[in-house]
Write a structure and sequence with these properties.
By secondary structure, the protein is α/β, with parallel strands linked by helices. It folds into two domains: about 130 residues, Aspartate Aminotransferase, domain 1, CATH 3.90.1150.10; about 240 residues, Aspartate Aminotransferase, domain 2, CATH 3.40.640. The chain is about 45% helix and about 10% strand. It contains 15 helices and eleven strands. Strands 2-8-7-6-5-3-4 form a seven-stranded mixed β-sheet, with helices on both faces. Strand 5, helix 8 and strand 6 form a beta-alpha-beta unit. Helix 2 packs across helix 11. Bound molecules: pyridoxal-5'-phosphate. Pyridoxal-5'-phosphate binds next to helix 5.
């Protein structure tokens, strides 16, 4: 059977990483991948994580299976992080959740749930969106549609176009929204826009699926959630997919959670039973180690304080790099206004560079970006900034 297969297409971003690794230029710069890097270009293990791991090594008594829904404490802590302590929904007891293998696992469980329990409903993604969204949703059997997102320049939001599209989406369809730090553009919705979307969703009986992969990477843990919290005041039902890969630097441990808001307590209990049935037939139950790390940190006031500081450090470094890049470009190419980069949030920015300019950066300067012009801002360092700005100015 296997003889007849043609090779599957390689992942475009990982392919670029391989090219980068083979490049022998001593000052090469990699702005492609989706992981945080510190000033030395490393993706560090956070101190709070190391401390939690030491505790776990001492205290852990068994490696037996977790339940299908994973660590219940993690699911509860996630909903508090998303909603914020004291949100009125927490008292209403109409939220359920499961721990998942990463944010991708949460997206897949949500997609399986919708595709199998509510067939014939499409899911709508921003154009552009994280490249894996359509893959995950289609693999679950969902039809994927797009809604407009960017303005004509490709660096800011076209909210009017988005709103017009939302008012035409058929009842019961699912809207995939990025909570903050939109990947790949860095262009986020403002609070009043979240409220407006909430009203449209309620009016048209749509279901929001909020991808929350970067809480704490934009403006702060609570600040990044204000839009979602506002949205949830207006909608009776919602699904929220959390990833702890970025804000805990736990990429390879696969920690995430799916939180579902239902209209009533009974409905939430019923939804949980369906989520568990989706999990059981997929990966049976989630991995424990990463979830135990996050739970240990979030439940210990001292470790939580360390984590919040380390997270603030990552956030600040990204913000500094945005500022330094814009200032550097102002010097190198004052006729081009790149100030929109400081309005964008999170690890990524849409630079507005064309595929031809991206090719020139790679071929002439050994600077690697994905062809859409998306930049991983965390790949910038004070050391590579001058060369980067000179290169970008030369291709503009
Ligand atoms: C928007 C978005 N959603 C989900 C994910 C998946 O996160 P995880 O690695 O936890 O599966 C990513 C990772 O890059 C992402 O950018």
């Amino acid at each position: 059977m296997f003889e007849v297969l043609q090779p599957a297409p390689p992942d475009p971003i990982l392919g670029l990483t391989e090219l980068f690794q083979r490049d022998r230029h001593p000052d090469k710069i990699n702005l492609t991948t989706g992981v945080y890097k510190d000033e030395s270009g490393n993706t560090p293990i956070l101190n709070c994580v190391k401390q939690a791991e030491r505790q776990l090594l001492e205290d852990e008594a068994t490696k037996s299976y977790l339940g299908i829904a994973g660590l219940e404490r993690l699911a509860n802590l996630t909903r508090e992080m998303v909603l914020g302590a004291g949100h009125e929904i927490l008292d209403q007891d109409r939220v359920c959740g499961v721990q998942t293998p990463g944010g991708t696992g949460a997206l897949r469980v949500a997609a399986d749930f919708v595709a199998t329990r509510f067939p014939n409903h499409s899911i709508w993604c921003s154009q552009p969106t994280w490249a894996n969204h359509p893959n995950v949703f289609r693999a679950a059997g969902l039809n994927v549609e797009n809604y407009p997102y960017l303005d004509a320049a490709g660096t800011g939001l076209d909210f009017a176009a988005l709103r017009t599209q939302f008012t035409q989406i058929p009842e019961g369809d699912v809207l995939c929204l990025h909570a903050c730090c939109h990947n790949p553009t860095g262009v986020d919705l403002q609070n009043d826009q979240w409220r407006e979307i909430g009203e449209i969703i309620q009016e048209r009986a749509l279901i929001p699926l909020v991808d929350f992969a970067y809480q704490g990477f934009g403006d702060g843990l609570d600040e990044d959630a204000t839009g979602v919290r506002e949205l949830l005041r207006h909608v009776p039902e919602a699904m929220i997919c959390t990833s702890f890969s970025k804000n805990f630097g736990l990429y390879s441990e696969r920690v995430g959670a799916l939180t579902v808001l239902a209209a009533t307590q009974d409905a939430a209990g019923c939804v949980l039973s369906h989520l568990k049935s989706c999990v059981r037939s997929n990966y049976s139950n989630p991995p424990k180690h990463g979830a135990a790390i996050v739970t240990t940190v979030l439940e210990d006031a001292t470790l939580r304080g360390v984590w919040e500081q380390e997270l603030a450090g990552m956030r600040q470094r990204i913000s500094d790099m945005r500022g330094q890049f814009v200032a550097g470009m102002q010097q190198q190419a004052p006729q081009h206004d790149l100030s929109f980069i400081t309005n964008q949030r999170g690890m990524f920015s849409f630079s507005g560079l064309s595929p031809v300019q991206v090719d020139a950066l790679r071929n002439e300067w050994s600077i690697y970006l994905v062809s859409s012009g998306r930049i991983n801002v965390a790949g910038m360092t004070p050391q590579n900034m001058a060369r980067l700005c000179e290169a970008v100015a030369s291709v503009l």
